[in-house]
Amino acid sequence: MAEVAIYLASGCTGCEMSMLDLAEGLLEMDIKVVWASPTLGDGKYKYSRIPEVDVAFVEGGIRLDEQESIVRELRRKSDVLVAFGICAACGGIPGLANLHSKDEIFESIFKKGFTTDNPDSTIPQRTVVLDGKYELTLPDFYENVMAVDQIVSVDCYIGGCPPSPEQVRNAINKILSGKKGWITSGRSVCDFCQYTVTDRMEGVNRFLRMSSGECFLKQKALCFGPATQGDCEASCTRAGVPCRGCGGPLPNVRDYGAKIIDMLSTLLDERGVEELSTGYHSLTKFIYLYSLPSATIPGKVRRYHVREVE
Amino acid sequence: MRIEINPISRIEGHAKVTLFFDVNGKLEQAFFQATELRGYEKKNTYRNSHRGSTKNRFNNMWYL
After folding, report:
1. Which of residues 254-273 of A touch B (CB under 8 A)?
2. How confident is the model at residue A88 (pLDDT cuts 50, 70, 90)?
3. A296 or A310, higher pLDDT
4. Element (H or E) spanning A181, and its range?
5. Cβ contacts (< 8 Å) between A104 and chain B: which residues?
6. Which long-range contacts (CB under 8 A, 24 or more apart) does A109-116 make?
7. Which residue of B has its CA nearest to A115?
8. What is the pLDDT of residues A235-277, one digit of tens each?
9. Does the distance separating the beta carbons of B59 and A12 come in below 8 Å?
10. Of A127, A181, A215, A287, whose CB is crowded by the most CB atoms within 10 A?
11. What percentage of chain A has pLDDT greater than the value 90?
């Protein structure tokens, strides 16, 4: 029986909940959870209390120094490290914060928030001493969100935000049988979608009208199905919503957003490209919604970064 | 004496509790800290609601 550790880094617990949604299916699997923290179990962050395990699941990207140290410790103590969910594999939605600096984020929350009541403009400090004797610490907040494979080597990746319970079941079985790399069928969302994919887009609309039973691309709505892993079995397009790419890139694709641009360049004509650039004024936050930290340019390159290079 | 419980496990998300005891072992002061921060206010600027929602990825501790 494989011993398993489950760690929630900068995720939102969605993937762990998806694992729990297997219900009795979780009992039938050949795993034993020996350390889980903080949601599925009562594990603590003390290094001595993290046991040696066969498989370690990490959910979520890396944002705090505490998360980085725990992930490094899990890498030392596990045979197989799994990036569980798109946040761990590619950065996920938290990775959109790479487009803003740490100071901008702190300012928007602790100084200019709608409900912020902070007359002294205090921002969180790493160490603070209250009343002269109570010393409190917080973990260090990094400038950028990172995917797990930017910190340690990762053996297996599972996409999805969150992966469906059935996908989790298949993935765990494949990992236990020794598969490495992206745990996926290798088929795109369009393979599972009920509509036939089109090879031509007439233009790009900002708004999607009620779905008329055709491919979304034919209805001038951006759908990322052709470039996305279809292990979700096209659950969004079956519900009438275009794919947004949470499944992650197909294997052997490094930069997901670049692949989307590649796909659009073959589908659109000049007028469509113009509509795309005028209609969508934050295209980065759209095409890199789930994969910005794993992109070739993993965030906004700011002026002071360039100055450091000089 | 100082006891740090990190992370606490009865919530969905990251937080820690620091307890301070006096010499008789009586609880003097207790602090609760949420350790995670996302910055959704800033991240969602210029994003339209119909273009893939991030709202269902909020966690009860981290929508700060």
Report:
1. none
2. very high
3. A296
4. strand A181-182
5. 42
6. A109/B37, A109/B39, A109/B41, A109/B42, A109/B64, A113/B41
7. B64
8. 988 888 888 888 999 988 889 999 999 999 999 988 888 888 8
9. yes
10. A287
11. 46
What mean pLDDT value characterizes chain B?
79
Q: Percentage of chain A surpassing pLDDT 70? A: 96
Nearest-by-Cβ selection for B7 from A12, A13, A38: A38
Quote the pLDDT of residue B63: 43
Contact check, Cβ <8 Å, A45/B7: yes
Q: Does A141 touch chain B (CB under 8 A)?
A: yes
**Shortest distance, CA A13 to any CA of chain B (angstroms):** 7
d(CA B62, CA A255): 28
Query: Amino acid identity, residue A229?
Result: Q
What dihedral do alpha carbons A279, A283, A286, A288 form, nearest 10°? Answer: 160
Nearest CB to B36: which of A10, A42, A45?
A: A10
Chain B environment of A14 (Cβ under 8 Å): 57
Q: How many residues does chain A have?
A: 310
Locate the chain A residue with the closest alpha carbon to B52: A244
pLDDT band at A152 (very low <50, low <70, confident <90, very high): very high
Number of residues written out for chain B: 64
* Separation CA A85–CA A159 (nearest Å): 5
